[in-house]
Amino acid sequence: MKPAATIPQALAAVAIVGAAAFWLLWPSAPPLQPLPSVTIAVPQLLNAAPMFVANAQGLFEKAGVNVVNQPFVIGRDALKSVLDGKADFAVVADAPVMFATLEGADVVILTGISTLPRAMSIVGRVDRGIQREEDLAGKSVAITPGTILPYFLDSVLQTKRIPIDAVKRVELDTAEIINAIQKGEVDAAVVGEPFAAKLRADMGDKLKTFYAEKLFSMRFALVGKAGYVDSHPQEVQRVLRGLLAAKASITADPVAARHMVGAALKVDDALMVKMFDPEDFDVALKQAQLLALEDQTRWAMAQGLVKPGPVPNYLKLMRFQHLEAVSPNAVQLVR
């Protein structure tokens, strides 16, 4: 986290952010007309913080769109809701988008909303002899298939020169993972926030936590089906304006934003202080998103999780025109 700004700098930043938020939310739909409505599937994860802030402050309505939220535990299931036609947009990490694309889904990416270097961790039980990453060899590790968790685990294992097949993978959903690690049914688990923070609070020094912030950042994006996105440009741009205003609000008053996110996730503020960094949230399309999708595709092919073949041109998934229309500087892609 960067050092705190001086008081004059902070006041100037608030003024600039406030002006930016005003611009982003103007023009909005006429107040007497019913707002167009969209449904967004949202995982209950720290990565979705801009969504929680926008909801808490009514920023989508101010941008001229009514948002109906569909809560899910993880992004994989949020994306499935879109693919099943039950939601218009989803907030989701790279890996489920990659898997869906390789399976022929017409999903497109509208904007990134967060890049968290410590949103994912491996937690290991100390009573199973886990004190460092190398101790994972020969142990059982719980993961959720079809998510970013297996990729994160393999990245850590490779960095520590642990053979990928040296751990026993136990495939479980998030709620099952929490229960399994607490009961000792597995030795370790890959867990995202805020679930990992709650586990650490419950189990204390019975757990060791391993991050990989210099190796891995967990990116979440707003996505939708191409057909819907291309036929609803007004709704898309209004949702983006709401998210941009949420980003401005997070920057202007990170403490208030942290409280809103904590309330949405039902996480105590003492834990939120350790997890929440306002610099982790940015509504933008960046080249790093493309590189991450390509790298995860090569990993999935190497692991036999998908059919081998050429890596897709993920730039074609980026519907950058909508974000460019409301915030040109937010599009940072090499085209």
Structure in words:
Helix content is 44%, strand content 20%. The two termini are 31 Å apart. It is α/β, with parallel strands linked by helices and 335 residues long. Strand 6 (140-143), helix 6 (149-159) and strand 7 form a beta-alpha-beta unit. It has 2 domains: 7-117 and 217-332, 3-Layer(aba) Sandwich (D-Maltodextrin-Binding Protein, domain 2), CATH 3.40.190.10; 120-210, D-Maltodextrin-Binding Protein, domain 2 (3-Layer(aba) Sandwich), CATH 3.40.190.10.
Which terms would index this structure?
globular; alpha/beta; single chain; D-Maltodextrin-Binding Protein, domain 2; five-stranded mixed β-sheet; seven-stranded mixed β-sheet; 12 strands; 335 residues; 2 domains
In summary, what is this structure?
This protein is of the alpha/beta class and about 325 residues long.
CATH class call of the largest domain: Alpha Beta
Task: Spell the H/E element sequence.
Answer: HEHHEHEHEEEHEHEHEEHHHHEHHE
Per DSSP, the total helix count is 14
- How many domains is the backbone divided into? 2
Look at the helices and sheets and give the structural class. Answer: alpha/beta
Q: Can you tell me the residue ranges where pLDDT is under 50 for at least 5 consecutive residues?
A: 1-19
CATH architecture descriptor text of the largest domain: 3-Layer(aba) Sandwich
Radius of gyration: 20 Å
Query: Separation of termini?
Result: 31 Å
The tally of strands reads 12
- pLDDT average, as an integer? 89
Classify the fold: give the CATH topology of the largest domain. D-Maltodextrin-Binding Protein, domain 2
Widest sheet, order of strands:
2-1-3-10-4-11-12
Shape from CA axes?
A: globular
DSSP helix fraction: 40-55%
Corresponding CATH superfamily of the largest domain: Periplasmic binding protein-like II
Fraction of residues in β-strands: 15-25%
For the report, how would you describe the main beta sheet? 7 strands, mixed
